[in-house]
Specification:
Elements: E1 12-16, H1 21-32, E2 36-41, H2 48-51, E3 59-63, H3 73-84, E4 89-92, E5 97-99, H4 107-135, E6 142-147, H5 160-179, E7 186-193, E8 205-207, H6 220-230, H7 237-248, E9 256-259, H8 261-280, H9 282-286
Helix pairs in contact: 1-7, 3-4, 4-5
Length: 308
């Protein structure tokens, strides 16, 4: 029996960035529950230990550089479907960190950050939505889990471009979700992990040296770098993988899902800060309304522009 027809009833996942960290842990957890995985990586050799344990009916390793815009996301989806016969869950996990102050970060470094962290998920999400919509019945639908970060909700010194790429990914995910007909049962969820025990702060972090004007050890950039280098990351990547499995099965998942006590702490504090500023500057905020305008008109659009 071919890989395309075997175990036809089990779900199929496409996961990017699988050589280590959250991606590697996720494909392990998915395989452990008897579902199937297309593991996307730049180097198949990074997954040699897994291919030795799992045959092609359960694990397909795909060499594909998601940052290469000339590589078709539609072709990537087609390869997975041709192999397994279906596709149910896409996890856009490939990404890396870029550390450096705005003034000292070259444009090419910032653009590459966006190419990997933002444009690659955009291309794959677009292709996945098209496949889900045209091929999966509503009962099956599809799930797209875009791996953002709590840094996609709050930024910090030296992480402006990293956070900007994740802010963009979250805005894209939200806008995309609101475009989709609910009857299609396609859900897009932005996943916001806190610090996870991966290579993110090690080999997956590109560091741009601080310019002299920012090199003061008592300055915010240098202090934050010290904190980041000495931080205790409390997130377990295997537990993150299990959480992704759980949310992929939810009928009505949230638009954003923080993962970890640190993520909840950071996001709650940012929400509190937003609410404080929102209240503090209310008078000025409302002062720009035209005299003949109805300031409550948005409330009348509840359910379309504004969620109930």
């Amino acid at each position: 029996m071919s890989a395309r027809t075997s175990a036809r009833g089990s779900r199929v996942w496409l996961v990017t960035g699988t050589s280590a960290g959250i991606g590697y842990a996720t494909i392990n957890e998915v395989l452990a529950i008897g579902e199937r995985v297309a593991a996307v990586t730049r180097s198949a050799s990074s997954l040699a230990s897994l291919t030795a344990l799992h045959g092609p009916s359960n694990l397909l390793v795909v060499e594909h550089n998601v940052a290469d815009a000339t590589k078709s996301a539609d072709d990537l989806i087609a390869r997975v479907v041709n192999h397994f016969g279906r596709l149910d869950v896409v996890v856009n996990n490939a990404g890396y960190g870029l550390s450096g102050v705005v003034e000292g970060t070259p444009d090419e470094d910032a653009r590459e950050q966006f190419e990997v962290n933002f444009w690659a998920p955009v291309r794959i999400s677009r292709a996945a939505v098209k496949y889900f919509r045209e091929n999966n019945p509503p009962a099956q639908g599809g799930r797209i889990l875009n791996i953002s970060s709590c840094g996609g909700f709050m930024s910090n010194p030296t992480l402006a471009f990293y956070s900007a790429s994740k802010f963009a990914l979250e805005g894209f995910s939200e806008g995309l979700q609101k475009e989709l007909d609910p009857s299609w049962n396609i859900k897009v969820i932005a996943i916001q992990p806190g610090g996870v025990r991966t290579l993110w702060a090690g080999s997956n972090l590109v560091e741009v040296p601080l310019p002299p004007a920012y090199a003061d050890p008592e300055g915010a950039p240098a202090k934050f770098l010290q904190i980041m280098r000495g931080a205790e990351y409390i997130g377990d990547p295997n537990k993150v993988g299990r959480a992704l499995i759980t949310i992929s099965k939810a009928d009505n998942p949230p638009m954003r899902l923080p993962l970890g006590a640190d993520a909840r702490f950071v996001i709650q504090n940012k929400l509190n800060e937003i609410q404080r500023e929102f209240d503090e500057w209310k008078e000025l905020e409302l002062s720009t309304v035209a005299d003949d305008a109805d300031p409550t008109f948005l409330a009348k659009l509840s359910g379309s522009v504004v969620r109930n």
